[in-house]
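Before a computer can learn anything about folding, someone has to put a protein's shape into writing. The three-dimensional part falls to structure tokens, numbers that each stand for a local backbone shape. The protein below has been through that process, and both of its lines are reproduced in full.
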Amino acid sequence: MALRHTYFSAAGFNPLPHIDRWLHPYRLAADVPLRDRTVHVYCTGRAREALQTRATPLYVEMQLYFSCVVKKRVLFHDTPSRSDFVEAGDHLRVRASTVESDVCSPEAFAAGYPARRELSSVGAQRMVPRNLWLDYRAGQWVGEIAVGAT
């Protein structure tokens, strides 16, 4: 009995992401106090090198976007859009935001994430990512966040 094209087969398995993760592991870069919580920032070696070569800090916004669905987004800015970014290293600043969508439309959501307002309630302020992973691949910043109780 062959296991081709089944759940247990290796068909369609791409080892490249696993090899990349093995060659470029994430390491703890900083613990950042944010809204009475601690965010653990992890960077790959590529990200650390890219940060060190920057003349100005990289501003990273960890966003929880509430629309028809909840989306976790990591936005990168060269200049700060607000003044509440927190230092997370020599060339890295971070902030967390919880944003409400302007509309609940799949087309508008896919076109550009329209935002009506940033939420400021007590519940929204408690929604802070606990982990931020940063990488720098092919000349682009890549980020991921994990949200959960700490």
